[in-house]
Fold this protein.
Amino acid sequence: MTVVKEAISALVAILVFPGLAFMVISALAFEWLDRVMIARLQGRVGPPWYQPVADLIKLLAKEDILPTGANEAVAAVLPVISLASVLTAALYVPVAGYGVTSFEGDLIVVLFLLSLPALAYFLAGWVSVGVYSMVGGSRSLLQYFSYEVPFLMALATPAIVADSWRIEIIVTRQPTWGVFTMPLGFALAVVGLIGKLKRDPFDIPKASSEVVAGPLTEYSGRKLALWHLTVDVQTVVGILLLVNLFLGGHTSTFVPVAAWISPWLFAGKALLILVLLAAASVLYARLRIDQLANLGWRVLAPLALAQIVVALWMVS
Amino acid sequence: MSTRQAARTGGNGLPQEAIVAALRQALGDAVGEARAVPVDEMWIPIAPEVLRDAVEELQRCGVRHLSTISGLDDDEGIVLLYHFWRGHGLTLSLRLPYEAASVPTLIDLIPGAAFYEREVAEMLGVTFGGHEDIKPLLLPEDWDAGPPLRHDDADALPPSREDG
Amino acid sequence: MDRMTIPIGPQHPLLKEPMSFTVTVEGEQVLASTMRMGYVHRGIEKLAESRNYRQVVHLVERICGICSHVHTTTFCDAVETLLGLEVPPRAWYIRALLCELERIHSHLLWLGVLAKNVGYDTVFMYSWRDREIVLDMMEELSGGRVSHAVNIIGGVRVDLDVEQARSMLERLPLLEEKVDGALHLVETERTLRARTQGVGYLSPEQIRAYCVVGPVARASGVDVDMRRDAPCAPYDELGVDVQMHTAGDVWARAVVRVRETRESLRLCRLILENLPAGATEVRAPRRVPAGEAVTRWEAPRGEVLYYVRSDGSDTPSRLKVRTPTLTTLITLPDQLRGVALADVTVVLSGVDLCIACADR
């Protein structure tokens, strides 16, 4: 009987909360919030709440074609792999303390799974055979190498300080939120997240005025819908990861709070990071790829290294 | 001369008469009678053969800005107008016969002349000797109806409506 | 990495009008470029030969959307000269007012386009929102936001009463504040400068060799401005402070254009405060005596030249238009050689292409 109960609760966790359904709904909600915030900062109004849903439905209904010479099979599989990997990563990221599952080392698994979409993105450009796609694809790889190393190092810092590579443990072992003890790491993680999500000012691979839409230029219909959903889910997972590692997840610091506030606290922190991402989108012009590579290797990576050294010193 | 022309007091170039004199001294009879054209222009007819020498002389006088090359068909031949500017307008005008509408190019002296020569070439059928690879500028590659601005082209435009 | 040929245009998010560029790149570096224009060639000069002068005024207005008023002003100037008409000063002031408003409009629009093309959507949204103030003023003056049809041969067909002039003057301080903000942004914002400085450099010698005009020339230190060099009313009375820079790159062009916008606001204020009384037009006969006239004016992009030849009838026998964008297009192969692919966007934005003007 308990086996059935466990099976059902596992299924609910995977499919409903905090799994598939919750992730997809949050993804669309976060996309809407992001678009509204950016719009208001730019003096516009922004779309209504159902816009991301409408966009998704519209895309699903569109014709799905690729140029002659494109590898249809690979092109169809890549968005599915990307979406699957970010959804799987979501399994290990606790939402307000509820994770589907967890084990020692799951942080590394999450980081690996979150990197898969970057490679799939590049391949998507490669197999869809178009000049803009190829240029965008090669840019996306170059960008990947520029932000990923500082990002990984920055995210390793809370693990070093908490002496565990299990996200659940890292959350609970933070007496003071990581953002206060490792502010540099937090800043680098946010910058790295912007690069990973290919948001302004790091949307170089899909710079519309240069390469039309980058690797996804030739995609349409269902495939494009899945790619958009992947980006949205990746945004949520990335934000939740940062909340857990640097902002203490659902715990509070300095001031104890009642248990029922925790989920709202968690949501508030996630929104805070979304605000940071939206503000970064609005404030800067797009960098050139060589300027980003410069920034990544000459500024971010050394800073991340310094942060790791500091973390190691803090632990000893 | 209208009040407008009199109001043109600005300008920072050599007086136009001095330039005409310099041209006449350099090229002699190839330079015709200059006349004033509104607004603030001096037009100097020259023989087509001395075009490059005239332009070199103008450059020596400090007149280097070529505004454009106009071409027109005045039913007696093709007239080319090289509009220069330095404080005041200065135009070299030359006349070419229909059958031998050819002048030397200026693009080595004035690189900015390239587009203007291409446009005159395609619109009026003038050849610019020395301007290699003169491609159409505005007309499509498959244009086959002859130079549009020559008056001898058969396809006339529909008449405009009389409510102007 | 192999060489790739990337087409930019005729349809591309970067271009607002159809024009075809192809750049050959190796990795991210541009090796060579070609361009093809003529996609919006409508044969304006040929059409003008079969329309009477009043109709040609409407025709040349449609050469361009952004500098339409300058085209009609220059053309009317030429025809009025041939007719020997004395256009009243009030008409010239109103023409200049609209010219300066158009310049402000064009530069604000361009700033937004440059920002959008370097991924700076915020500045795009802000500058186009501020442009709305200018469009409202133009609409109150002429009835149209972008296409005004204000000029007629012999003057202008609209007039400003005291109320309208005051209402426009009241809106100028807000615009001045916004443009000052834009200038501060262009001069100091780091990411914008990182993208535009050092890109698309043209030396003064290149400017003079290619006979470039307009803000592109002024940004490289070459002092040309038809409002000062060939002044007519009211510029000769108002005096124009020509804005220059020496850096010669896209950033310098941005600075020059925003400073020119500020200068144009000052000129608008002077015009509105000093409108001479009197008529706004004189009667113009239909037939224009035989003759020729060449007029030049300062469009937002530089010197525009009109050559009108009349044979004594009511139809021009030749109309020649030379727009400033032609002079900047010819510098593009030089500017694009050796730049990064991302800089192609910046270079093309920096020259402020008005392809409809160039193609006519």
